[in-house]
Amino acid sequence: MKKILCYGDSNTFGFNPLNGSRYGQNERWSGILKQNLSANFEIIEEGMNNRTGFVDNPDGIIFSSQKHFPSIINKYDKFDILILAIGTNDLQFLYDFEIESAEEGLKTLINIAKTNTKQIILIPPVKLDNRILNGYFKIMFDKSSIEKSLRIGEIYKKTAEDTGCKIFDINEFAKPSDIDGLHYTPEVHKLIAQNLAEFISTIA
Q1: Distance (Å, whole) CA 58 – CA 176
Q2: Could you tell me if residue 50 is left (phi over 0), alpha (psi between -120 and 50 degrees) or otherwise beta?
Q3: Range of the domain at 118
Q4: Which residues contact 13 (CB under 8 A, 6 or more apart)?
Q5: In which order are the strands placed within the sheet that holds 79-85?
Q6: Distance between CA atoms of 81 and 69, rounded to whole angstroms?
Q7: Domain total in the chain
Q8: Which pTM was predicted?
Q9: Which CATH number fits the domain that encloses residue 194?
Q10: Packing angle of the helix pair 143-163, 101-113 (nearest 10 deg)
Q11: Which of 168, 154, 161 shows the shortest CA–CA distance to 199?
């Protein structure tokens, strides 16, 4: 059986922007993914709310990919595919994150993963817009966050090319909800799972 690890932040975890709960397994993209693939795929979900990809998160190790990710890679046997969907929370204004640093941070995670993974798919951060300034998460994201989110995807694409990884940009066909401008609706989660399954079938 082929093994797929989905490692990411709140949109991988399945954060519901309506009430802050977690979407059920049949509602979040990482849970739905198996339904869209053949029976010989095992999906391992490792999403976490507020997880950063590159900066040190003060909430603890499990929220900081640079510290937490190695333990996840070593926890399981070899993966056929790693889906790495991380980096949106680094754009919170409190971190004052320089997006050019994402390349080095991504390469660190990729090098760790390559010891135990055959193929890696990078998913760039959500492209933000002014809707996020009108919702709850305006306490974390500002206009500079929006501007950075519109540019950081190119760094992911370049890093994928440089490291032999695949790129799967959700922003090409999906937008976050009007509720908070950050998290996806169940309908979009379903769309992500469908498109991602089709993409995986071309490389697996």
Answers
A1: 26
A2: left
A3: 2-203
A4: 22, 28, 45, 47, 48, 49
A5: 41-47, 2-8, 79-85, 117-122, 166-167
A6: 15
A7: 1
A8: 0.97
A9: 3.40.50.1110
A10: 50
A11: 168
Token pair belonging to 100? 């050019």
Q: How far apart are CA 132 and CA 65, in angstroms?
A: 24
DSSP result, the chain: -EEEEEEESHHHHTB-TTTS-BPPTTTSHHHHGGGGS-TTEEEEEEE-TT-BSSS--TT-GGGBHHHHHHHHHHHSS-EEEEEEE--SGGGSGGG---TTHHHHHHHHHHHHHTTTEEEEEE-PPPPP-GGGGGSGGGGT--HHHHHHHHHHHHHHHHHHHHHT-EE--GGGT----TTTSSS--HHHHHHHHHHHHHHHHHH-
Report the distance separating Cα 150 and Cα 140, nearest Å.
Answer: 17
Tens place of pLDDT per residue across the chain (204 aa): 899 999 999 999 999 999 999 999 999 999 999 899 978 899 999 999 999 999 999 999 999 999 999 999 998 889 999 999 999 999 999 999 999 999 999 999 999 999 999 999 999 999 999 999 999 999 999 999 999 999 999 999 999 999 999 999 999 999 999 999 999 999 999 999 999 999 999 988
Distances (CA, A) of 163 to 81, 157, 166: 15, 10, 9
Taking the C-alpha atoms of residue 82 and residue 123, their distance in angstroms, rounded to an integer, is 11
Place of tokens 């990710």: 69
